[in-house]
Design a protein that fits this description.
There is one protein chain. Helices cover about 70% and strands about 0% of the residues. It is mainly alpha-helical. Among the domains are: about 140 residues, no CATH class; about 80 residues, Lytic transglycosylase, superhelical linker domain (Methyltransferase, Methionine Synthase (B12-binding Domains), Chain A, domain 1); about 180 residues, Lysozyme, CATH 1.10.530. The N and C termini lie far apart (about 60 Å).
Length: about 650
């Protein structure tokens, strides 16, 4: 019956397509089809699909894909295979495989599941958690010796698990992999991450909880102080006692002293491990607040219970105090996977230099200096002018670019851009890049630059690992606008390019989730304040995406932050991202090296932002023919907080709007 109905839908769609949709362009049909898919209007979607099929449109696979989503339970194996063969190894073919895997997992066809999973390239981001759980179930069913360890890794990752993961959890619990000890650990970690839904799922699986725990979790999430005051937590259950840890951590985020008071009051109800966890939570938040006592707080905690995040802030606490010996010990003790990150390799080398161990430091710096990022540039400057491995560069030929443009995926991307489907085009691009080698990624970057897809050009050039093209990695579009604005504001044009590259990747149409818009991602409230200062009569939010207006507003705010912090570029950059009051609060009581200030910014987004913007500016200066500064000189020295706290009433006004 369903097959007959589908045939009738296709026939009706063909007739309608011949009389009605034939006059619409491919982009318009695509937009109509997407609306039909979102409203689950299958007949209209089928009609649009037939229209694009007749035209052999490069957008056709998207409409077919949407149809498959809406009719997943009715699809046959042959229909799926026909789509996969027609679209070969495209991004959508992998998505269809994921859809089909979900169906196979739900009916537990494990042999077929493994067969289809093997068709997905390893470089494809297989991020669907439900399918990852089904993969573990398939491994268990087929006696894969790695099954239980894979399942445990998935649980320990701490991600919110969908309903599709219940079967895996049940299987792991039956064989004792997901035992009470692991359940409790995962439950505590979920609370620490404020994932109360996951915490409830885990608590429900324990034999040591009752229904009352779910209400207690909700009460503690809503108001920790009130929940503690009620005093109805059952101390006999480790799951209930974990709520004390949850409350203390929540309080520590807001006020360390309140958290300490709660710990003193309730520590007698906790066992030794729970006390250690509570103290680690307090030390973490103290470190984020740059409290000097954070370092000693970490020292009192058994290192075996520290999370990756706590290890990193343990190191930052020592770095903030420039206690190089302590920092070296922390980095040597932290898990190897963390210690091998570029940041901790660099700071380990710096600690070794401070201790006079130059040979060991230079060995680290020599390797790090070959890497093309913030720490690589710093390492090269610390190392000085020594011979290293020559950097390979590549300049694509015109014919390579023309040949690249002939690929079906590129034709589809062009059609997606025509349909204003930039998000889908970007996903296609990211998938394409994964399969390319360095020279071909550079060819891709050249093509994108010629098309004006500046963000995609940067994305492609940024992914090279050994062979590079820094002209493509650091493009200079809109030079007339930026040079004029930089000169009129008397600010460093390389810094302006560094900000824009990080903020929008030169997409003038960009809009963030919080409303910031345009090349320089200016917040609407801040833009209105600046427009009033500049006397821009008739200004409205839509003007944020006008390049000239946006650059005018953004560079004004850059000048403002630079003046606020007496020309200190690092603090001004932090202020551009997180607001002036926060940037000021993050200064120390004594002068601080700019790199240390950047490394110890509490917000990971702003911390990474500042490092990337300053590294961008460092690379843009020679591209723009500007005087070359070392990255260390650009980072400078952050003045003591007493100096940095100088502000005026206008600053306060902007803070309230920016933050």
């Amino acid at each position: 019956m369903k097959t007959k109905l589908n045939s009738l839908l296709v026939l009706a769609a063909c007739l309608l397509a011949m009389t009605r949709s034939v006059f619409a362009g491919d982009s318009e049909v695509y937009v109509q089809a997407k609306q039909a898919y979102q409203s689950r209007n299958l007949p209209q979607l089928v009609e649009a699909t037939e229209t694009l099929r007749q035209r052999r449109s490069p957008l056709l696979p998207y409409l077919q894909y949407w149809q498959m989503i809406l009719t997943l339970d009715q699809l046959s194996y042959d229909q799926v295979q026909a789509f996969l063969q027609e679209n070969n190894e495209s991004l959508l073919s992998q998505r269809v495989r994921e859809l089909w895997l979900k169906r196979l997992g739900r009916v537990q066809f494990w042999d077929q599941f493994v067969e289809v999973r093997a068709q997905i390239p390893m470089y494809y981001s297989f991020n669907d958690l439900g399918n990852q759980c089904y993969q573990v179930q398939a491994e268990i069913a087929l006696d894969d010796p790695n099954a239980y360890e894979d399942g445990k890794k998935l649980l320990v990752a701490g991600k919110d698990l969908p309903a599709d993961c219940q079967g895996m959890m049940e299987a792991l619990q039956q064989v004792g992999v997901l035992d009470e000890k692991l359940l409790l650990t995962l439950y505590r970690d979920a609370l620490f991450s404020n994932k109360t839904g996951l915490a409830k799922v885990l608590a429900k699986r324990s034999s040591k909880t009752d229904a009352g725990i779910f209400k207690q979790i909700d009460e503690m999430a809503q108001n920790p102080a009130l929940a503690l005051k009620k005093g109805n937590i059952q101390q006999r259950s480790a799951y209930s006692r974990a709520l004390y840890l949850y409350a203390i951590h929540r309080q520590a985020k807001a006020d360390i002293n309140v958290a300490k008071a709660s710990y003193q009051k309730y520590s007698g109800l906790l066992d030794n491990e729970e006390k250690q966890l509570a103290q680690a939570y307090i030390a973490l938040e103290a470190a984020r607040k740059h409290e000097p006592e954070a370092l000693q707080g970490f020292n009192r905690v058994n290192a075996s219970i520290l999370s990756s995040e706590q290890w990193e802030w343990y190191a930052r606490s020592a770095l903030r105090q420039q206690d190089w010996e302590h920092l070296l010990k922390v980095i040597n003790d932290m898990p190897a996977v963390l210690a091998e990150e570029a940041a901790w390799r660099y700071w380990k080398a710096r600690a070794l230099i401070a201790k006079g161990q130059m040979a060991d430091a230079n060995q680290i710096l020599a390797k790090l200096s070959q890497e093309r990022h913030f720490y690589g540039w710093l390492a090269a400057e610390d190392l000085g002018p020594v011979a290293g491995e020559p950097m390979a560069t590549y300049q694509p030929a015109d014919e390579e670019v023309r040949q690249f443009a002939r690929q079906p995926v590129i034709k589809r991307m062009e059609a997606l851009f025509d349909a204003d489907a930039r998000y889908e085009a970007r996903l296609e691009w990211m998938y394409l890049l994964e399969a390319l080698d360095d020279p071909t990624r550079i060819v891709a970057a050249q093509y994108a630059l010629l098309k004006g897809w500046y963000d995609l050009a940067v994305l492609a050039a940024d992914k090279t690992s050994r062979t590079h093209n820094f002209e493509l990695r650091y493009p200079t579009p809109y030079r007339d606008y930026l040079q004029k604005a930089s000169r009129s504001r008397a600010i460093d044009e390389a810094w302006v390019y560094g900000i824009i590259r990080q903020e929008s990747r030169f997409m003038h149409y960009a809009k963030s989730s919080v409303g910031a818009g345009g090349l320089m991602q200016v917040m609407p409230a801040t833009a209105k304040w600046i427009a009033k200062k500049l006397g821009l009569n008739g200004y409205h939010d839509g003007m944020l995406h006008d390049i000239d207006t946006n650059v005018n507003l953004g560079t004004y705010y850059m000048r403002y932050t630079l003046d606020t912090f007496n020309g200190q570029e690092v603090m001004a950059t932090a202020a551009y991202n997180a607001g002036p009051s926060r940037a000021r609060r993050w200064a120390a009581n004594t002068p601080l090296e700019g790199a240390i200030y950047a490394e110890t910014i509490p917000f990971s987004e702003t911390r990474n932002y500042v490092k990337k913007v300053l590294a961008n500016a460092h690379m843009y200066a020679p591209r723009l023919g500007l005087p070359m500064l070392t990255l260390k000189k650009r980072l400078g020295v952050i003045p003591a907080r007493a100096v940095a706290e100088v502000e005026n009433v206008t600053t306060t006004i902007v803070i309230s709007e920016q933050e």
